């Protein structure tokens, strides 16, 4: 369903930065992959290419037979409705309530009022934020803001969900709780891609991992956490 | 919350964020449309007044001195038989002379030295108002008739009418277009700034799958609002000015000058024009400022 063929992304600044360098892998519908790698490895870049926030410099990214690098601008909104994103920096609107922040995903699709109300409340219930629905994101803790971002991605019932460091700001208990929710979402058939540099999280689940370093895919997809152990030093995140 | 409510609230928020910019945008549009509407108003009033004068001006057929009674009555019945002629009045040489003397307010002795009566007899023809458009052709036709020496009609009035129309059209074209371009530019800039000030929300909208149309819509609504309110304000100001002038004219009571304000159709057209300026300004701004998806 998703495949990366020799994908490279180069940023041109004072110097050229190879954020992704010849990355290839593929996922089937309903798969759950971790993307593991130290800071600056290219995890966010890979995800942004997936929802066409960035175009690959070289190579192809195919989703359901469609080369999204060659996609026309008109088709982009449709892709983004199918791909839910939990952003590393949340991207919430501070002058809007929690409810409205989640509803925005459905508003852009022109859903009707009752449908929006029903689905937003259900998504908030999933992330246990029903009682905070009228609050402002500024009044929330980091973990709560994270979960609003998650509810916004979930509410449109996406085929693919990508989450960029969804547990980075959370204490271990809450991190486990969030990961369990991702697990549950995946069980209902959603394809999941979760970026993390938290090796502990990866170990708890038996999901394939892709390991990035300096933009290169150095390992995986592999399910063997012990096999990954030699790379742990690379992440520097082992508890 | 529904999609339309969200979009309209977005538009309203744009209109309440930067008050000064809004005032400038509406003010410039109002000025532009004040001028355009003012030019239309003056043009229509002058045109209508001149047409009124033309209606009161008969076509005069000056008759050859040799024309005899029979020929004259023949001409008279030919004229009356026409659809475009409402009535015909004969004026003899003597009557013409009397009228001339009266118009100069002269006593008998001053013209005593003149031998005979140099003024011709004439037929004063009133045309149907609908035929006034073709008064030149009609006059030319009369000119060909035997017994007719020359034909006079309100040529000067017609020339004034035309000359005035042309001048006004140039003025309308010029001022209207220039000020409208300025208004479009100001609306463009105002909307551009409000798009920029909403960039966080726009980025999020893009990432959750909003179309360009969806993102641009609230801004185009704001732009239309500028044009709409600007055109109403501009015409409101014009109406106040019109009212002041009209009451002054009534006071002085000069001629039977009958002024009138723009017709509802024109008011509506100018509101449409204002809204169009808003659409052009805002749509261009949105296209530029939203950037790539
Ligand atoms: N827009 C950009 N312009 C220039 N360089 C960029 C840009 N985005 C990312 N990079 C560079 O590309 C490399 C990969 O960045 P990326 O954000 O994908 O890393 P990451 O794996 O997500 O890191 P982290 O774990 O810290 O979030 C980094 O060296 C970064 O500086
Ligand atoms: Mg990142």
Could you describe the 3D structure shown?
The complex is a heterodimer of chains A (239) and B (293). Chain A is of the alpha/beta class and 239 residues long. In chain A, 36% of the residues lie in helices and 26% in strands. Chain A is built from eight helices and ten strands. In chain A, a hairpin with a 2-residue loop joins β9 (209-213) and β10 (216-222). In chain A, α3 crosses α4 (113-126) and α3 packs parallel to α5 (142-154). In chain B, α1 (3-17) crosses α8. Chain B is built from nine helices and four strands; from the N terminus they run ααβαβαβαβαααα. The model of chain B has no long low-confidence stretch (mean pLDDT 84). By secondary structure, chain B is of the alpha+beta class. Chain B has helices spanning 3-17, 19-55, 69-80, 93-104, 135-144, 155-197, 199-207, 212-252, 264-289; strands at 59-63, 85-91, 122-127, 148-152. Chain B is elongated and about 100 Å long. Helix content of chain B is 70%, strand content 8%. Chain B has a four-stranded antiparallel sheet. The A-B interface holds A 51-53, 73-74, 76-81, 85, 87, 91, 93, 99-100, 103-105, 107-113, 116-117, 152, 156 and B 1-3, 6, 200-201, 203-212, 214, 292-293.
């Amino acid at each position: 369903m998703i495949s990366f063929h020799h994908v490279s992304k180069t940023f041109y600044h004072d110097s050229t930065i190879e954020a992704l360098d010849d990355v290839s892998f593929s996922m089937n519908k309903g798969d759950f992959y971790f993307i593991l790698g130290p800071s600056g490895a290219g995890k966010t870049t890979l995800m942004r290419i997936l929802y066409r926030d960035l175009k690959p410099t070289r190579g192809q990214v195919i989703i359901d037979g469609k080369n999204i690098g060659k996609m026309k601008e008109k088709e982009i909104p449709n892709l983004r409705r199918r791909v839910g994103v939990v952003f590393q920096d949340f991207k919430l609107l501070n002058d809007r309530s929690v409810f409205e922040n989640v509803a925005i995903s459905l508003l852009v699709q022109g859903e009707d009022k009752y449908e929006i109300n029903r689905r937003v409340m259900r998504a908030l219930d999933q992330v246990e934020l029903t009682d905070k629905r009228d609050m402002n994101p500024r009044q929330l803790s980091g973990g709560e803001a994270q979960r609003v971002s998650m509810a916004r991605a979930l509410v449109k019932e996406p085929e693919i969900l990508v989450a960029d460091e969804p547990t980075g700001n959370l204490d271990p208990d809450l991190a486990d709780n969030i990961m369990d929710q991702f697990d549950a979402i995946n069980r209902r058939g959603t394809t999941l891609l979760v970026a993390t540099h938290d090796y502990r999280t990866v170990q708890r689940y038996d999901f394939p991992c892709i390991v990035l370093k300096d933009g290169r895919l150095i390992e995986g997809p592999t399910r063997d956490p012990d096999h990954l152990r030699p790379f742990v030093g690379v992440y520097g995140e082992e508890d | 919350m529904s999609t339309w409510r969200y979009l309209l609230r977005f538009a309203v928020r744009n209109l309440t964020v930067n008050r000064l910019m809004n005032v400038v945008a509406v003010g410039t549009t109002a000025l532009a449309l004040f001028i355009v509407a003012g030019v239309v108003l003056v043009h229509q009033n002058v045109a209508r007044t001149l047409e009124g004068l033309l209606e009161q001006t008969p076509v005069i057929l000056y008759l050859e001195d040799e024309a005899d009674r029979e020929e004259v009555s023949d001409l008279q019945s030919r004229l009356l038989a026409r659809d475009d002629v409402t009535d015909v009045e004969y004026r003899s040489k003597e009557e013409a002379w009397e009228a001339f003397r009266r118009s100069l307010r002269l006593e008998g002795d001053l013209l005593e030295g003149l031998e005979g009566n140099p003024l011709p007899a004439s037929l004063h023809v009133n045309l149907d108002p609908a035929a006034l458009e073709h008064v030149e052709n009609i006059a030319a036709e009369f000119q060909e008739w035997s017994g007719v020496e020359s034909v006079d009609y309100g040529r000067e009035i017609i020339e004034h009418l035309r000359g005035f129309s042309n001048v006004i059209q140039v003025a309308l074209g010029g001022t209207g277009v220039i000020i409208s371009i300025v208004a479009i530019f100001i609306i463009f800039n105002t909307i551009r700034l409000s798009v920029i000030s909403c960039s966080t929300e726009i980025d999020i909208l893009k990432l959750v799958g909003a179309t360009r149309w969806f993102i641009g819509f609230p801004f185009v609504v704001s732009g239309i609002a500028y044009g709409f309110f600007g055109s109403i304000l501009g015409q409101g100001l014009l109406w106040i000015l019109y009212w002041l002038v009209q009451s002054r004219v009534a006071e002085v009571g000069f001629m039977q000058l009958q002024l009138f304000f723009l017709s509802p159709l024109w008011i509506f057209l100018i509101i449409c024009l204002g809204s169009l300026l808003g659409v052009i300004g805002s749509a261009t701004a949105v296209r530029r400022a939203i950037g790539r998806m």
